[in-house]
Amino acid sequence: MVNGSAKAWVNFDGTGTPAERDSLNVSNIVDVSTGKYTIELSNSMANGDYSVGGFTTSTSPALLIHIWTAAEADIAESGWTLSTLIVSSTGGGGTVKDATTVTAQFMGDLA
User: Fold this and answer.
1) What's the pTM value of the predicted model, to 2 decimals?
2) By the 8 A CB rule, do 7 and 46 touch?
3) What's the pLDDT at 104?
4) Cα(46)–Cα(26) distance, integer angstroms
């Protein structure tokens, strides 16, 4: 793959059993628990110092901010575990919830 291009990306429905819509270099999406998913890569990254970007959407409740988070321990060369979170205000707090659209793009070096 070319330097500067995404080394992996995915778009999936995170409600119920995750259903991949399209992807590159993603072998599996594991439903860990409500609003928590592990994206497994077909070809691993060189190390855990890669960058991940993406977004989520939810139809219910549609007016709340929907973000995704990960703990440092959830970042591995072979994939990434993320949680989708509904936040009701910019003041913090929130609830983990399945998202209707989850996307992620992985930038960095492949192993």
Assistant:
1) 0.88
2) no
3) 93
4) 15
pLDDT at site 58: 76
Q: Is pLDDT above 70 for 74?
A: yes
Structure tokens at 84: 């989708």
- DSSP of 32-84: EETTEEEEEESS-BSSS--EEEEEEE-STTTTSEEEEE--GGGEETTEEEEEE
Amino acid at 93: G
- Let me know how long the chain is: 111
Q: Average the pLDDT over 14-25 and give the result.
A: 95
Burial class (CB in 10 A: 0-12, 13-18, 19+), 41: buried
